[in-house]
Amino acid sequence: MQIRKIKKAVGTIKVPGDKSISHRAVMLGSLANGITSVSGFLSGADCLSTIDCFRNMGIEINIDDDNVIVYGKGLHGLKQPNKMLYTGNSGTTTRLLCGILAGQKFNSSITGDASIQKRPMGRVVKPLSMMGAKIENEFCPLYITGTNLKGIDYKMPVASAQVKTAILLAGLYANDETVVREIEKSRDHTELMLGAMGADINVDDLNITVRKTENLSAIDVNVPGDISSAAFFMVLASIMPNSEVTITNVGINPTRTGIIDVLKDMGADITLENVHTNAGESIADITVRSSNLKGTTIGGDIIPRLIDELPIIAVAAVFADGTTTIKDAEELKVKETNRIRAVVDEFKKCGIDITETDDGMIIHGGKSISGADFKTYGDHRMAMSLSVLAQLADGDSTIDDSQCACVSYPNFFDDLYGLE
Ligand code: SPQ
Predict the structure, then answer these.
(1) Fold annotation for 19-222
(2) Which of these, 124, 328, 398, 409, is most buried using a 10 Å CB contact count?
């Protein structure tokens, strides 16, 4: 697809609902007693995969645009699926399901698309096995024999909300208490939602304790806009001259706002308005105006707070004066594609001075760049990051797969082209 170039980035955008919260609303709503009503749901391919999996386990779920009603059947109300559960491109669906399915009284199996079959599942299989889970394989397809679980005290080797959540969900079914100790704080949407539904959960900084729970209460979930989707327009408006973009109703949970901290550190002009809280999740309207960015170093415990934004932050670095170093980001190698390799290879096509490192990349920015024919590797965040890069390059660009943006942002190109 040819990327049409817009002349300026001016306007107001409402990005779709947060992907992480949308997944969790359907999963926990299915396990709750009663009706969970979700507004602002992300009807992207990944969250639809989650809905599909739970429908296959007997949960009635109605979708009307971005409103979803989940008729929960309680923690022991799922029924054995009559086929292998298919999670598409979604790591979140796959890993969180492992935690839920391990403690059921039935057997199940899970697989996903070609990308999912290459993503490491050993990171959830290992701690779940310590809890007594019986899961065959460390890559999809996974075969799960439902069994009784026991609590563990687990120190996480990586910062991962998916691993943390899989253990916490299994902990709802386990005898004794389950403790998860994080090395760095990762997104905490699960803890907030479980707490709101009445689970026996306690968060003490990096340590989370959950105990066997008999009943989760259904709640109404208002899903805020996804800051990971807002990030594309935050970077575009920062760089494109004469720009001013407001993104309304964006989730600004502190475990997700590394992008704001980094862009501000680079000199971006970002203001937050209408800041408020809904069910523990902070929300704001974010306005971004053009500014001159400068290079920075990004590493350490901010990484989990912006892990999914690193490809678009790399775009910001290309147009920032000086050098930007991204380090401590090895986790990028096990996303939908190896996002370090993919960014470096595609950016080099434009003449960008970028070097791959073991745990990130180094970008010497501030020079003009040319357009190119880009590959997305079927990765939604690569597709959208490269489309923003293309807006800022001299000359024309194409991407080989614009469709994959639907995983997290079905209307991305309408919103992008609507900014002129
Ligand atoms: O669901 P999936 O495919 O893993 O999605 C990604 C993304 O870019 O949308 C990662 F590729 O987001 C993850 C994120 O990187 C979503 C997530 C969550 O909802 O818990 C947590 C992060 O992954 P991890 O491995 O750090 O736990």
Answers:
(1) UDP-n-acetylglucosamine1-carboxyvinyl-transferase; Chain (3.65.10)
(2) 124
